[in-house]
Specification:
Length: about 90
């Protein structure tokens, strides 16, 4: 399962100790099972100092999630730009 991308986020807890959380996106190629094509799989894996969790998504679910993240990110950036314009 190849790793497509990995985001590493460093943060400090209340004691000032550094920790890291890793978001990894992996993929599995589409396959043929019993003569029928099957979707590939997208795996989103989150790992930190306490453990690891993973979620397998179909390509449709992956597109839906990515569209939601894109929409939210655009809204947040536009709100920040508006705040900068109002400040100036």
């Amino acid at each position: 399962m190849p790793v497509e991308d990995e985001l590493i986020h460093w943060w400090k807890d209340d004691k000032g100790e550094q920790h890291r959380t890793i978001l990894r996106i992996e993929s599995e190629e589409p396959q043929s099972a019993n003569g029928f094509p099957r979707d590939g799989v997208i795996t989103v894996r989150v790992a930190n100092t306490t453990g690891t969790a993973a979620m397998k998504l179909s390509p449709d679910e992956g597109l839906r999630l990515s569209n939601q993240i894109l929409t939210i990110a655009k809204e947040l950036l536009n709100k920040k730009r508006k705040m900068w314009r109002e400040r100036d």
